[in-house]
TrEMBL record:
GO biological process annotation, one example: methylation
Catalysed reactions, semicolon-separated: N-terminal L-seryl-L-prolyl-L-lysyl-[protein] + 3 S-adenosyl-L-methionine = N-terminal N,N,N-trimethyl-L-seryl-L-prolyl-L-lysyl-[protein] + 3 S-adenosyl-L-homocysteine + 3 H(+); N-terminal L-alanyl-L-prolyl-L-lysyl-[protein] + 3 S-adenosyl-L-methionine = N-terminal N,N,N-trimethyl-L-alanyl-L-prolyl-L-lysyl-[protein] + 3 S-adenosyl-L-homocysteine + 3 H(+); N-terminal L-prolyl-L-prolyl-L-lysyl-[protein] + 2 S-adenosyl-L-methionine = N-terminal N,N-dimethyl-L-prolyl-L-prolyl-L-lysyl-[protein] + 2 S-adenosyl-L-homocysteine + 2 H(+)
EC number: 2.1.1.244
Organism: Penicillium brevicompactum
Ranges annotated as spanning the membrane: none
Extent of Basic and acidic residues compositional bias: 13-25
Family: Belongs to the methyltransferase superfamily. NTM1 family.
Keywords: Methyltransferase, S-adenosyl-L-methionine, Transferase
Keyword Transferase: yes
Protein name as it appears in the record: Alpha N-terminal protein methyltransferase 1
């Protein structure tokens, strides 16, 4: 498994403060994240955290994702353009907001990876659960998911902040080998706006928000090429939301 340069990611810090400042991901506590997510309602609105019931937000997000995937599919001739993909995975799926509003339209079957059981229980009971599009459900964090199938599309959104840098490299590398020859992975995440260009730690849900540069280093270390990337547009400016970027990844040649 290839990793990022030792000096950047694996140095033993001299003091805890130094660790916190230069490695915000060292503060990630998986148990705290799971406690946080267990404390929020199992509803699509709650998946967008403090955005609550802002249903416009999910509409804009899903529209941006659909448009991005359409453009990426044009770049991969081996991917069928006008028919559904056979197998997708919704990683960190929550209650299946993205599968319901988007992935079920582009994939025949979608596997779900989500560590919080009350979310997947709600998903199974929902109308989506009865539609026959949901494949296997894995109640595990991405750091512990070892894909055993080959996927056409692995969609990972608003959840990789719960993984440390090194866990994220390993996760993306495992996804790389679990893609079909024409398969692709999409990572859609908030971007750090820290003025000094650092990742930002959030102790509400124990997660980090990474810089664009950090994402690129991680994808590179995981053996992935970015075949296309795009900023999500359309969020009203007055809400001062974090910028959101989509990365389409394919294994390096
Ligand atoms: C902001 S919600 C996003 C849910 C979904 N991706 C969406 O956009 O609607 C974050 C999700 O990450 C999940 N999560 C927390 N820790 C995780 C981990 N270690 N691996 C994967 N998902 C995790 C939470 O349970 C929650 O469902």
């Amino acid at each position: 498994m290839s990793h990022l340069p030792q000096s950047q990611y694996n140095d033993e810090p001299n003091t805890k403060n130094e660790a916190d400042a230069s490695h915000p991901d060292s503060k990630i506590d998986h148990a705290a994240s799971i406690n946080y997510w267990n404390s929020v309602p199992a509803t699509p609105g709650a998946m967008l955290a403090m955005l609550g019931d802002f249903s416009w937000y999910t509409r804009i997000d899903l529209r941006g994702s659909k448009s991005f995937l359409t453009k990426v599919r044009r770049l991969i001739p081996a991917l069928p353009r006008d028919q559904k993909l056979a197998l997708g995975a919704d990683c960190g799926a929550g209650v299946g907001r993205i599968t319901e509003g988007f992935l079920s339209e582009v994939c025949e079957v979608v596997d779900i990876v989500e560590p919080v059981e009350k979310f997947t229980a709600a998903l199974k009971k929902s109308e989506l659960g009865g539609r026959g599009v949901i494949g296997d459900i894995y109640n595990v964090g991405l750091e512990g998911w070892n894909p055993e199938k080959k996927y056409d599309l692995i969609w990972t959104q608003w959840c990789v902040g719960h993984l440390t840098d090194s866990q994220l490299i390993d996760f993306v590398a495992r996804c790389r080998v679990s893609l079909k020859d024409s398969g692709l992975m999409v990572v859609k995440e908030n971007q750090s706006t820290d003025p000094s260009g650092k990742d930002m730690y959030d102790d509400v849900d124990s997660s980090v928000t990474r810089t664009d540069l950090k994402f690129k280093e991680i994808f590179q270390a995981a053996g992935m090429d970015i075949v296309k990337s795009e900023m999500q547009t359309g969020f009203p400016k007055q809400y001062k939301l974090l910028p959101v970027k989509m990365y389409a990844l394919r294994p390096k040649n």
